[in-house]
Design a protein that fits this description.
Layout (H helix, E strand, L loop, with lengths): L1 H8 L2 H16 L5 H22 L4 H10 L7 H10 L4 H23 L2 H4 L3
Helix pairs in contact: 1-6, 2-3, 2-5, 2-6, 4-5, 4-6, 5-6
Length: 121
């Protein structure tokens, strides 16, 4: 579990620091500009909705739970990109994503032991 968490967390600073910059750069390019603009706009709209619902203080918990629920598309990389769109602080982003990765790892470890089948889920 420790190796999985460390491996998953390694690219997070790079995703957080450069995802928005790459999309902004790409939005000015001829062939990929439309896709990058749509991604930036969708990220901004989603971020504004989330801030309106939870407030700035609830972002930490929301990001942790988003990363911690082991479903396709909800992971550390997506969470770090979302945090960059939300202008969350670097330290709080890394802490929330780390806790989310640990939570997802615990959920998957419990699921792989058959506990959910045992209790009828």
């Amino acid at each position: 579990l420790i190796i999985c968490v460390l491996g998953n967390m390694f690219p997070i600073p790079f995703v957080y620091l450069f995802a928005r910059s790459v999309l902004t750069w790409g939005s000015k390019r001829k062939y990929i500009g439309g896709v990058c603009k749509k991604l930036l706009e969708k990220g901004e709209r989603g971020g504004q909705k989330l801030v309106a619902k939870t407030g700035r203080g609830g972002l930490f918990v929301a990001l942790m739970l988003f990363v911690g629920i082991p479903l396709p598309g909800t992971g550390a990389w997506t969470g770090a990109m979302a945090a960059s769109f939300l202008n969350m602080g670097f330290k709080s982003t890394v802490a929330a994503v780390t806790l989310g990765v640990i939570l997802a790892g615990i959920i998957m470890a419990v699921a792989s032991t058959g506990v959910f089948a045992f209790i009828g889920l």
